[in-house]
Specification:
heterodimer; A: 72% helix; elongated; B: 503 residues; mainly alpha
């Protein structure tokens, strides 16, 4: 079963070849369409139920597993099939573009990632491919990187989908935990038991968020129309036919596991319906051809999500048929919009008129696709509409009314995009418009014609494609054949009502559109503006917080560090009941008490004095006091070390003070000085409290005793301190010697700076 | 006693940079000879570290007693899976930095000092990873601090000096707190050997005092690791250093602090510290979020990357806070991943500076059109850093979040995930501004070409391949991290290796 993993991996392997090869020979670009065509055949010939798995990261339970069933076959065929058309179109659309090779390489990467995502049988493998499609989408939306709106749209699209993806990752992890496996087939084999798992609501909501972001569901739908900044082949391929359906795919994929959950149904139907409504209104309001199509894609995606939420064989069939229909006509219409944009120089639906006479072939293709979209009899779109109404009528409450309105809106979009630009008198600016080269026309014509072919001969796909896919969504065979008449007179009536209402709205669209466009509150309070506000808010919070935390003053940092560390340590000491006093012992003789007073006086003087020189002297008092204290305690080596260091430090500091211009005594104001003194006292108090607590524990001198005993016989040295330094703990000494050398080197670096201007 | 294979393997990672430091200091003014020393030292260390990892994988924790004075009386060097992996990565970063430094004008001007200081830094880092003694660890921290100070001011101007002062002062505070804590810990347990201290600490009668000492140690290490709210020194200094210096700092320095935190918590203070988990929770969340927000607030590539270091440290602390073997494995993998990716990003930043003429995002653009290889070499570590699958950062995040879910730390795991989107936002800004938008008028545009191109992009490509490799061939790394997590969580092997089978 090597053919199955070969499908995505082969495409992936081709990415560098495409980028490298087409840079040298751009004329070969049209031949790249052979790759998706070959993959299409490969998908077609791979048997149902084909499975492949390889241990990838067994420690984490992640497998390189692929599986082909009805649902993934439908998607893979759409990806490869529409891909073939889009690659052909893109090669002609961007002919002569200096970065054509990069464009097609990213498009190949996208195709590979899509195929991988729908064929993956492991949740994490699917997720990896899923994120890869988002990245490819980012690169393609921002292809015209010199345009600011392309850059913004690319960033927005990626931020929204990846944010959703993170929620989804959390959901996938919970799902893997609940099911005990990441294998999708194994999860589905558990039937509806997962729906009863306590984590199921979380899993459902988190995964749904990821799917909703990817499939542009309300209120995360706003990125999709902005993504129309991408070149038209990208809009056709990624943002209508395939990538935006990936969320729908995953929902459909997991539907058998969660269909029993009321939350699942309610979430999908509710969000799907809201998306349909929002998309329909915004589609009516839009003038730009591509953005208008994008809003209608939002409607279609909402419809699909709602259909998956309705647990019924007819709904599953309707979802599959509508998915196929939509991919065919919408890709075709986007490609045509690209042609119109290129030839007529505008995408404004209000201005575009009368192109039909100059572009008859384009007009014919548009008409075919538009009729399929409107659900005209004879087209496969009619079946979809029939099924849709039947299902939607079966759901009480709001859905039938929404369905009527939404379908009417779709008729308007079909009319405005596919018919209106070609009707009437030729517009003035469109003088040069004419039908494009064949390479640009093949894909839209073939895709649009397929809508008619499948409509006339539904048996071509009914048993081979539709039923297996719908069965996979449902979790059991549907037993429904395409072409059987569904619904009764009610559906008929409703269908005609939608068509009639749509026609009326189409005729009045010239007046309807400005009214709707006047509702600026839709923009002001819409989620797109909300995204902008959120981004600005994050930025503002970030700047304010950073300015507050990272203020730039060393004294501030120092105070914060000391305060936090010692307050925290004291808090822990008190909270854990560690406050304790050591037993009174020989440590508190009168000589030591006097020395302590000297040390304390030195410390206070260092705080009080204003001149740097005086502060140094006061600090020296502390140092010498400590040294003498060491002497009284019998630590002669330590005391002499302390004296040496103190003397050196004073000499150096005084030398520096004498030579450098430290005239200003102390710039701190009185409150600052008080705060600093308080801080110093606090740190000292905390340190003392901890030290006293430590001293309350009797010291275990086993190491010092051992060292004293071993020094002479084993280390051959009379002075234990020396033996420790050069033998027992020689590595420390070696390190300290290294520190000396390194300090000398660092000083050299500093000294070499002298004389250099800043 | 005749030194065994394990003894040599433990000593070499310290010995090699020590000799390299001394030799190249003696060879000042003879750049060619110094390069030879650094090159061979990095190569030998890489080989030795590889052998060390292999030995630890084969035999478990290994230890050697310096001067053959039995533990706990002398100084012990110890390597378990975690520390041997850290040593290996240190050697890798040493080699990569040494190569790229050839192309850096700032470093080349002061090459005589660069070589010994670089070796000294590696010495301190490797020593810290292998130290089995608390005071010895302090010594290596000192070596690191003074060497990094020297490197920071290398070839620089006024801004660099100002940064170095802040760096040195704040780090000295941390080091002093560390020293105080060493003394207090010795007072409580009578020992400095970490394994011995691990056995004695639970028997200390005043556990409140033990907790306070633990807090001081964690604070000192945390300041070194640049956790919230002790990270001020890092954003104040990293952006001023020369590119190869920034790369090695970004990769290694903070990670030594994290290493020490993990070692201290898992080995010396594992049980009964009920105050520690909520503290680490807050520190982890604060570090992740504040770091990511700090990155979002800046327009200088190196400042953005500096704050993102902090943010990533948060992920490692998440692992430490949860403290299950899986979570610690996540922390270990995060560290491994982050050292490579962060060093890589700072090296790329240097390349971007060359090709785009600036570190400031506002003052450059158009790099994607001009130099797609540079774009790809930025994209791999940037996306890995943001945790996109299947790169190394994803698996690190995956482990940490999975461990969080399994242990019921849902909110913290959620914060970790949400931080990912902020990280991506910062990376996208770099991409959009430096690579996509057209360069502003008057931007200095230089093509990276010839030998210089190879010296700059070669190490970058090597590290990018490592990231990609860890991502695509994650199994051995995940298995290693899990084994390391188990080893750290069950500390008996470490203690037995150091102290022998004595009770």
């Amino acid at each position: 079963m090597l053919a199955l993993p070969a499908i995505p991996l082969l495409a992936l392997a081709c990415v560098p070849l495409v980028g490298w090869g087409l840079r040298r020979a751009p004329v070969m670009a049209p031949w790249l369409a052979a790759l998706p065509a070959a993959l299409f055949l490969l998908v077609l010939t791979t048997p149902d139920g084909a499975m492949f798995s390889l241990h990838w990261i067994p420690t984490l339970g992640v497998e390189l597993a692929f599986r082909l069933d009805g649902l993934s076959r439908l998607f893979a065929l759409l990806i490869a099939g529409i891909g073939a058309g889009v690659f052909l179109y893109a090669a002609a659309y961007l002919e002569g573009h200096p970065l054509l090779h990069r464009f097609l390489a990213v498009l190949t990467l996208f195709m590979a990632a899509m195929l991988g995502a729908v064929l993956a049988d492991d949740l994490l493998l699917l997720f990896a491919f899923w994120e890869l499609t988002s990245l490819a989408s980012f690169m393609l939306i921002g292809f015209d990187a010199h345009r600011a709106e392309a850059r913004r749209a690319a960033q927005q699209g990626l931020m929204v989908t990846v944010a959703g993806g993170l929620a989804m990752l959390a959901g996938l992890l919970l799902l893997g935990d609940a099911a005990g496996t990441f294998r999708i087939s194994a999860i589905l084999a558990q039937g509806s038991t997962l729906a009863a798992h306590p984590a199921a609501p979380w899993i459902v909501v988190l995964i749904a968020i990821g799917c909703f972001a990817k499939s542009a569901q309300w209120p995360l739908h706003f990125w999709l129309p902005n993504a129309m900044a991408a070149p038209s082949p990208v809009s056709a391929y990624l943002h209508s036919a395939t990538m935006v359906k990936l969320g729908v795919y995953l929902l459909a994929r997991l539907n058998p596991a969660f269909e029993a959950l009321a939350l699942w149904q309610g979430l999908l139907i509710g969000v799907g319906t809201a998306t349909m409504l929002a998309g329909a209104v915004l589609a009516l309001r839009e003038r730009d051809l591509k953005r208008k199509l994008a809003w209608s894609t939002v409607v279609a995606l909402g419809t699909l999500v709602a259909l998956i939420g309705i647990e019924d064989p007819l709904a599953a069939t309707a979802a599959v048929v509508f998915l196929l229909v939509h991919a065919l006509y919408k890709a075709s219409l986007f490609l045509i919009a690209g042609i119109v944009d290129k030839k007529a120089g505008t995408r404004d639906a209000m201005q575009l008129r009368g192109l039909g006479r100059r572009m008859p072939i384009t007009a014919a293709a548009a008409l075919l696709a538009g009729l399929s979209m409107a659900g005209a009899p004879g087209f496969i779109g009619a079946f979809a509409k029939d099924l849709l109404f039947t299902v939607q009528l079966g759901v009480p409450r709001l859905l039938p009314a929404v369905a009527l309105l939404v379908n009417a809106a779709m008729v308007v979009v079909a009319g405005v995009v596919a018919a209106r630009p070609f009707m009437g008198k030729p517009m003035e600016t469109g003088g040069v418009a004419k039908d494009p080269a064949v390479a640009l026309l093949v894909a839209p014509i073939v895709l649009a014609t397929l809508g008619l072919v499948f409509g006339m001969a539904p048996h071509l796909i009914s048993a081979a494609i539709i039923e297996p896919a719908a069965g996979a969504i449902l979790g059991r065979p549907t037993g429904i054949a395409l072409g059987e008449k569904q619904g009764g007179t009610v559906v008929m009536t409703m269908s005609f009502a939608a068509l009639g209402l749509g026609l009326l709205m189409f005729l009045g669209w010239r007046r309807l559109q400005p009214t709707l466009a006047g509702q600026t509150w839709l923009d002001t309070y819409g989620p797109d503006a909300g995204y902008g506000r959120a981004m600005r808010a994050v930025s503002a919070v970030a700047v304010a917080l950073t300015r507050r935390v990272q203020g730039g003053s060393l004294r501030g940092y120092l105070a914060a560090n000391l305060a936090l560390v010692f307050a925290g340590a004291a808090l822990v000491l008190v909270a854990r009941g560690g406050l304790a006093l050591p037993l009174p012992g020989p440590w508190a003789g009168p000589a030591q008490l006097a020395l302590a007073a000297v040390i304390l006086a030195g410390a206070l003087a260092a705080c009080r004095l204003r001149a740097l020189f005086g502060q140094v002297m006061a600090a020296a008092l502390v140092g010498f006091g400590v040294g003498i204290l060491f002497l009284t305690l019998g630590a002669a080596d330590l005391a002499f070390t302390q004296f040496t260091v103190e003397i050196l430090a004073i000499v150096l500091l005084v030398a520096i003070l004498a030579r450098l211009p430290f005239h200003a005594p102390d710039a701190r104001r009185a409150p600052e000085r008080r705060r600093d003194a308080l801080l110093a006292a606090g740190v000292g108090a905390a340190g003392t409290a901890i030290l006293l607590a430590v001293l309350s524990v009797p010291f275990d001198p086993f190491i010092t005793e051992w060292m004293g005993k071993a020094a002479v016989p084993e280390a051959k040295g009379r002075n234990v301190v020396n033996v420790i330094i050069v033998d027992f703990r020689a590595l420390d000494t070696l390190g300290e010697i290294a520190v000396l050398l390194i300090a000398a080197l660092a000083a050299t670096v500093l000294l070499r700076r002298t004389g250099k201007p800043g | 006693m005749i030194a065994s294979r394990a003894d040599w393997l433990l000593a070499l990672p310290v010995l090699v940079p020590l000799i390299a430091c001394a030799l190249s200091a003696a060879l000042r003014g003879r750049a060619r000879a110094q390069r030879l020393v650094t090159g061979s030292a990095a190569a030998v260390m890489l080989l030795a570290a590889g052998a060390l990892v292999a030995e630890v994988v084969r035999r478990g924790v290994i230890a050697t007693q310096m001067g053959d004075w039995a533990a706990p009386f002398g100084i012990t060097l110890v390597a378990d899976l975690f520390s041997s992996a850290m040593v290996a990565i240190t050697a890798l970063i040493y080699a990569v930095t040494a190569v790229q430094a050839h192309a850096d004008p700032g470093v080349r001007a002061e090459e005589g000092l660069w070589h010994p200081l670089l070796a000294a830094l590696v010495l301190g880092v490797a020593g810290a990873f292998l130290a089995g003694d608390l005071f010895n660890l302090y010594v290596w921290f000192e070596v690191m601090l003074i060497a990094s100070f020297g490197l920071l001011v290398l070839g620089g101007g006024r801004a660099q000096l100002d940064a170095a002062v802040k760096y040195a002062v704040l780090n000295l505070v941390a080091t002093t707190v560390f020293l105080i804590a060493v003394g207090l810990a010795y007072g409580l347990t009578g020992t400095l050997n970490l394994a011995d201290m691990a056995r004695r600490m639970p028997e200390v009668p005043n556990q409140g005092a033990a907790a306070a000492v633990a807090f001081l140690l964690l604070a000192a290490f945390g300041a070194k690791a640049a956790v919230f709210p002790l990270f001020f020194w890092l954003p104040a200094s990293y952006h001023t250093a020369a590119a190869p210096v920034a790369a090695i700092f970004a990769g290694l320095l903070t990670k030594v602090g994290v290493y020490a935190m993990i070692r201290a918590v898992t080995l010396v203070f594992p049980a009964g510290q009920d105050w520690m988990a909520p503290l680490l929770w807050a520190v982890a969340a604060g570090t992740m979020v504040v770091g990511a927000l700090g990155a979002a607030a800046h327009w200088d590539i190196r400042r953005i990357l500096s704050f993102l270091i902090i943010s990533q440290i948060g992920y490692m602390i998440v692992g430490l806070a949860i403290a299950t073997p899986l979570a610690i494995a996540g922390a270990v993998l995060s560290i491994v991943h982050h050292i490579i990716v962060k060093a890589n990003l700072f090296l790329v930043a240097g390349a971007i500076r060359r090709a785009g003429g600036s570190f400031s995002l506002a003052q450059m653009g158009g790099l994607w059109r001009r130099d797609p290889w540079l774009g790809i070499l930025f994209a791999v570590p940037a996306l890995s850093h943001a945790g996109l699958p299947p790169l190394s950062g994803f698996w690190a995040k995956f482990l940490v979040v999975k461990a969080g879910f399994e242990a019921g730390w849902y909110v913290l795991a959620g914060v970790a995930l949400a931080t990912g989107i902020l990280t991506l936002y910062s990376m996208l800004r770099i991409w959009i501004e430096a690579f996509w938008k057209e360069p502003p008028e008057g931007a200095a545009i230089v093509a990276l070409a010839g030998r210089e191109r190879w010296l700059v992009l070669g190490p970058v490509a090597a590290l990018a391949l490592v990231t990609l490799g860890i991502g695509l061939w994650a199994e051995p790394f995940a298995a290693f991290a899990l084994a390391a997590g188990e080893q750290l969580a069950g500390r008996d092997a470490y203690i037995a290796a150091v102290l022998g089978a004595r009770p």
